Automatic annotation (TrEMBL):
It comes from the Bacteria. Keywords: Isomerase, Pyridoxal phosphate. It comes from Kaistia geumhonensis. Residues 57-355 form the Aminotransferase class V domain. It holds the Pfam family Aminotran_5. Its EC number is 5.1.1.17. This is Isopenicillin-N epimerase. One of its GO terms (molecular function) is isopenicillin-N epimerase activity.
Amino acid sequence: MTSNLAEQFLLDPDVVFLNHGSFGACPKPVFEDYQRWQLKLERQPVAFLDSRRGLEANLRAARLALAAELGSAPENIAQVTNATTGLNIALQSLPLAEGDEILTTDHEYSALEKTLVFVARRTGARIVVVKVPMPFVSAEAFHEAVLAGITPRTRVLFLSHITSPTALLFPIERLIAEARARGIFSVIDGAHTPGHIPLSLDALGADVYSGNCHKWMMSPKGSAFLHVRPDLQTMIDPLVVSHGWTADNKEPGVRGPLGNSAFIDEIEMQGTRDPSPWLAVPSAIAFRHAHDWWRVAAECRNLAQETAERVRGQFGLDALSSPEFSAPQMVAIPIPPCDPLAIHDALLADYGIEIPVFAWQDRHIARLSCQGYNTRGQMDVLVEALAELFGLRQRHRKLNTA
Ligand SMILES: Cc1ncc(COP(=O)(O)O)c(C=O)c1O
């Protein structure tokens, strides 16, 4: 929001970066901490990666810091590389059988839709996709639509907390409670939520919740977690079997070889890999606290919503949702029918704007992210650029035809 904050990031100053949502962006001090860990690793790889010589304590410290931030106990949180991995671990572990049903919505992330199909093919389960009532203006209508999809065969409820194509904040609390009451596993895709909305995972009560730290928490790419309720952890199998596997995993209370729960050791030991992104999570959390990031986020939210309204206003298009159901710092803005790739490419080439533009169902969308490094002036550039590209105003920028 201020040039001061923009200076804290490594982003190319020639790009109007309005796509924090895809891969995040890491502040300089956090990135430096990440590189410090990597240098330490490279100076003495054996000492660094030997769990007896400090690695396990370092991993645990990161787990502790993250657990405090997310409102859960460190024993329930395992480090994974990304939310896709965390959700794959959980979905591929669930005891599904022929004819069981996985209930989900038509707003899910495409990679996880594929994971559901993969799981369904392997197990014989059926995927039931609920159409979410749009525009999204009522939690009640959402709850009713999802609950109407439940049958006696429903075994899994799979929901995004913040959706990717539509940037909606799904009110999932009641659905998680309903699933629990009916013996249905709730599996939540929280790829966009850590650092984006305050989270209290224990209070939320989902059976499985996987989220990325590398998006809105602004830690280095490759830092994410899988959270599983304590009583279900013995059900979870690792995708990669390595030193952490214990044949006796299925007995509650069994410790893994590194002294953590079997759940954590099985998932975190995956063969040789660089744990530095995860080890830098505490400095991302410290950076956020030092800069009062929830206040920054609230300003970003206002700017994102206001910009979305300006764009919609000039096209005369309705919002996808009422403001309380929009992800705070990410808004899916409807734009007129177009070739989305051509608009994306023109925004980047002619105006230096990086923003995802795509077709989703019968809509065309520009998904605006607003983070602390963005400015009001950048939002003006976006509003103006869209007006020009759709012929509402004459182009006064020289096209880059090279
Ligand atoms: C809703 C949702 N789920 C999952 C993912 C996957 O995240 P990752 O690639 O970090 O696993 C994304 C990525 O943008 C997403 O938007």
